[in-house]
Design a protein that fits this description.
By secondary structure, the protein is mainly alpha-helical. It has 18 helices and no strands. The longest helix has 31 residues. The radius of gyration is 22 Å and the shape is globular.
């Protein structure tokens, strides 16, 4: 295992009772950090967009480029820095992201032009990447193997909880008091919710506590970290088609999320629109937790396939919904896939390619998905202006179908695993071995 530069250990900061697997501390720490980052980052981007229109007098088209910069730069930053995740202590990333993000949020008080508005989102995208999904899922994947689905489902639920807990508070503050008055407390919460937790509780590898993934004792001769090399993994059919899969899935998903409130308001009323957003977040949390149980008897690839089909169906339902009951029912259907498909992305990659160079493999796949994240809201907004939301949501469903077909084209996970997993020994002589291979 490659040695990494480590921060000094804080005395007794990570001590836990004997017999308790420290990996669960990692999971819940990542959960809280993602809650902070999503609540004041991912979900808050649309709130700051609306404030840019109201407070700065920007056009909707000009303001929409801010979140696009945020997601694009975040994905690119994650990819460019991913190689370093295997070389340095991951707490350095969280420290940098926590400090930079805190200063960036505090700078909202000086955002008063289109140029400073774009600069804010650009730097904030870097902060979000440094303390976001790439380092978080990398840590969880390192600490868990057999129980990885459950661990990832719990940790990634922090994203949805951030939208439930922090975003409404920040949105209300911005609406009532403005960006400048809300900047200071948001900056403080960002810092506290990331930096102390990361420095005190996170650890790079299970071996730092004398353990293997899932808590097994370290063997006398430590085994090398298993996984496919980055250069080999990214050239496989499985990886390339998975990039297209998540580019299309996220284009449909994030585009629909960005316009769900507007669509519900247009077809019903503002009260129903507010309930719709809360319903989406709550359903996403519950469905993500349930998936950890479902994955005990269903393969990751199969569950991803089922949910991709379900998301396409939910988008069609949303395109046709025109009453409070149908909008809310379609939103529940949609929420079942929203959080799960995001959680299944790192799980698919870790199963297929191992954890040796997981951070680089995941970050490149996430970069492909970022293209969809950035383009989805604009595409649905354009189609709405040209026609209506029915056409926009049907187009999102069509993009999702493309993602489904790409997922089928990727082939079985076992083909990718052959790059790095040793074949199981065959007992019974050459003839039986030949028969087994056949």
């Amino acid at each position: 295992m490659r040695s990494v530069a480590r921060l000094p250990r804080v005395a007794s900061a990570a001590d836990v009772p004997a017999g308790f697997f420290y990996g669960w501390v990692i999971v819940w720490t990542v959960f809280l950090i993602l809650l902070t980052g999503a609540g004041l980052g991912f979900y808050l981007a649309s709130v700051i967009l609306r404030a840019g229109v109201a407070e700065l007098g920007l056009s909707v088209q000009a303001a929409s480029l801010g979140p696009t910069l945020f997601f694009s730069i975040s994905g690119l930053t994650g990819f460019l820095l991913a190689k370093k995740l295997n070389e340095v202590d991951l707490r350095w990333f969280y420290l940098a992201g926590g400090v930079l993000g805190s200063f960036t949020l505090a700078s909202l008080r000086w955002v008063d032009t289109l140029a400073t508005y774009y600069l804010f989102f650009s730097v904030y995208g870097i902060s979000f990447a440094l303390a976001g999904l790439v380092p978080g899922t990398t840590l969880v994947a390192r600490w868990f193997d057999r129980r990885r689905p459950t661990a990832l489902s719990l940790a990634s639920t922090g994203l949805s909880m951030g939208g439930i807990v922090l975003t409404p508070l920040a949105a209300a503050s911005i609406v009532d008091h403005g960006l400048a008055a809300s900047a200071t407390w948001m900056a403080i919460v960002w810092f506290i919710g990331i930096v102390p937790l990361a420095l005190l509780l996170l650890r790079n590898f299970p071996s730092s506590r004398g353990l293997e993934p899932d808590g097994a004792p370290t063997p006398p001769q430590p085994r090398p970290v298993a996984g496919a090399p980055f250069a080999v993994a990214v050239r496989t059919r499985y990886f390339r088609w998975l990039c297209l899969t998540y580019g299309m899935i996220f284009m449909a998903q994030v585009g629909a999320i960005a316009h769900l409130y507007s669509m519900a308001s247009e077809r019903t009323d503002v009260s129903t629109a507010g309930v719709t957003v809360a319903t989406l977040a709550a359903t996403s949390v519950l469905a993500r937790l349930a998936s950890g149980i479902v994955l005990r008897w269903m393969s990751t690839k199969m569950l991803t396939t089922v949910l991709t089909v379900a998301q396409a169906g939910a988008l069609i339902c949303l395109s046709l919904a025109n009453s409070r009951v149908t909008v809310l029912a379609s939103t529940v259907f949609f929420g079942m896939s929203v959080g799960n498909l995001l959680m299944l992305q790192p799980l698919l990659l870790a199963e297929a390619f191992g954890v040796k160079e997981y951070s680089r493999i995941y970050s490149l796949n996430q970069l492909a998905g970022t293209v969809g994240v950035a383009g989805g809201p604009y595409l649905l907004g354009f189609l709405h202006d040209q026609a209506n939301y029915q056409l926009a949501f049907v187009a999102a469903a069509a993009a999702n179908v493309v993602g489904f077909l790409a997922l089928l084209a990727a082939g079985p996970t076992s083909q990718a695993q052959r790059l790095w997993k040793e074949p199981a020994p065959v007992v019974g002589g050459p003839a039986l071995a030949q028969s087994a291979r056949a």
